[in-house]
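Renewal narrative, Specific Aim 1. Our central claim is that a sequence can be written position by position from structural information alone. The example that follows is taken directly from our test logs and has not been curated for this report. It begins with the structure tokens describing the chain, in the order in which they were read.
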């Protein structure tokens, strides 16, 4: 990542282990040639793919189907000056396989915004990166640099 900035780089397995503990993440995609970020609830599949559930008519489903996107989730404790952030970058696609869709409908918690026509979006984990800050510790010691 960025040397000497006080964060510890996480390996892929650590990233995926932390990712499953988060309830909400953010999808970063392109909207009208500009970066757009949307909060979403999600799930991590056994192969590390990020799965989203949204309405078939959503702008998100249309915007990211077939596109390369980033997905980020984190946990921050502002009082303890600690936390982590994980980013999954990869191709997104609407799930069309009936067997997979049936499995997801059965195993997925109810949508936060139910819709009669929901789709599942899979983000393949082509690049998984993460960083952790533990208690404000850095190569320079504890506390603020200022």
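The sequence written for that structure reads:
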């Amino acid at each position: 990542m960025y040397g000497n900035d006080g964060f510890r780089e996480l390996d892929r397995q650590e990233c995926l282990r932390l990712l499953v503990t988060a309830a909400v993440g953010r999808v970063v995609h392109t909207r009208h040639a500009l970066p757009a970020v949307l909060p979403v609830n999600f799930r991590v599949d056994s192969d590390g793919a990020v799965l989203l559930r949204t309405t078939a008519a959503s702008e998100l489903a249309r915007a990211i189907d077939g596109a390369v996107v980033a997905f980020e989730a984190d946990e921050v404790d502002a009082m303890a000056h600690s936390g982590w952030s994980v980013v999954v970058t990869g191709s997104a696609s609407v799930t069309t396989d009936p067997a997979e869709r049936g499995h997801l409908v059965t195993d997925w918690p109810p949508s936060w915004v139910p819709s009669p026509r929901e789709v599942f979006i899979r983000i393949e984990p082509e690049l998984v990166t993460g960083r952790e800050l533990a208690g404000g510790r850095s190569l320079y010691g504890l506390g603020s640099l200022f």
